[in-house]
Design goal:
binds flavin-adenine dinucleotide; alpha/beta; Elongation Factor Tu (Ef-tu), domain 3; 5 helices; single chain; 3 domains; binds FE2/S2 (inorganic) cluster; seven-stranded mixed beta sheet
């Protein structure tokens, strides 16, 4: 159950290209699972930035009824995130968390590959720990445009059996994309389930490679959001249901995690004409 809290910024530390924020508040770490996100109001009082900004929860620690800690990894992208990373320790932030549907964890121990792009690695150490606790074997591939845009590699290297890095510019690891090294890794690791978080084109490629190699993929999508709580329909994308019918579903409440083979990646940003309820041309 999401709660809205006034959280105190305990720490704001630069890590490579990102900022690692530690927030303390009451009850917002309760029930957090890997894949949940937090939505933060930005800009302070009387701001024109009325929409909250969404961030994957990196870590959550429930301490007492009054004190719990949530950690985020923020890339200063536009005005909202630039405001957020400029906040001093002690700042009070308006946070709603936990939101969304987290990654589904397997019932039986299986070989899992965790694939992340850029700050998409934020939830991966937490996810790896949960999978390892269930007896799963965990392997990882982290990719980014350049070395400074990788996050949490040391911690995740410690958790993974096989760990690989790719960068677009070759500054570290293999030069190229995560999807380039996936087939070899998946064969070596005998991967059954792929978990992915990162930019949409990366998720599309990861879903494709996973399907080609017979693995299930779970992808945490990053659609633009407005309300973050299922009311405004800003974040919809076409997803195929169990009945084979495509529906426009809300990534903030029905996701952000979806099965990769169910997302109509080529049609994201549109309403496919065969989607349930889509406007029909020539209709009355
Ligand atoms: C589920 C989810 C998890 C995310 N996790 C992280 C994370 O861990 N770390 C991180 O740095 N960023 C994360 N993002 C992206 C982050 O929300 C955007 O970078 C941020 O909202 C941009 O706001 P801005 O004011 O800086 O930029 P602007 O481009 O000025 O934003 C304007 C508006 O567009 C929306 N928007 C713009 N870019 C995005 C985007 N990429 N995704 C969603 N909405 C966007 C914003 O909500 C805002 O309302 C996540 C997004 C989603 C949906
Ligand atoms: S962001 Fe409003 S419904 Fe998802």
């Amino acid at each position: 159950m999401a709660v809205q809290v006034k959280a105190t910024l305990l720490s704001n530390r630069r890590v490579g290209s990102y900022h690692h924020l530690v927030l303390s508040g009451a009850g917002f770490a309760s029930g957090v699972r890997p894949g949940h996100f937090a939505a933060i109001a930005v800009g302070g009082d009387n701001t024109p930035m009325v929409l909250r900004r969404a961030f994957s929860i990196h870590r959550a620690t429930e301490m007492t009824a009054k004190g719990s800690v949530v950690e985020l990894v923020v890339s200063a992208h536009g005005p909202g995130t630039q405001w957020l990373v400029a906040q001093p320790v002690g700042a009070i932030l308006d946070v709603v968390a936990p939101l969304g549907r987290p990654f589904a964890l397997p019932r039986d121990p299986v070989n899992c590959l965790l694939v992340a792009g850029g700050y998409g690695s934020a939830p991966m150490a937490y996810l790896a720990e949960e999978l390892i606790a269930r007896g799963c074997q965990v392997d990882m591939i982290f990719g980014a445009s350049t070395e400074s845009k990788l996050f949490d590699t040391l911690e995740c290297k410690r958790l993974a059996r096989y760990f690989e890095i790719t960068t677009d510019d070759g500054s570290i690891g293999t030069k190229g994309r995560v999807s380039d090294v996936m087939p070899e890794m998946m064969k070596r690791a005998e991967t059954a389930v792929v978990y992915a978080c990162g930019p949409m084109p990366m998720l599309q490629a990861v879903a494709k490679v996973s399907a080609q190699l017979g693995a299930i993929s779970q992808t945490a999508v990053e659609e633009s959001m407005a309300c973050g709580i299922g009311v405004c329909m800003t974040c919809v994308l076409p997803v195929i249901g169990d009945d084979g019918v495509t529906r426009m579903v809300r990534s903030c409440v029905d996701g952000p995690v979806f099965r990769g083979d169910r997302v109509r990646w080529d049609a994201v940003g549109t309403v496919p004409s065969d989607a349930y309820g889509a406007p029909q041309s020539g209709g009355h």
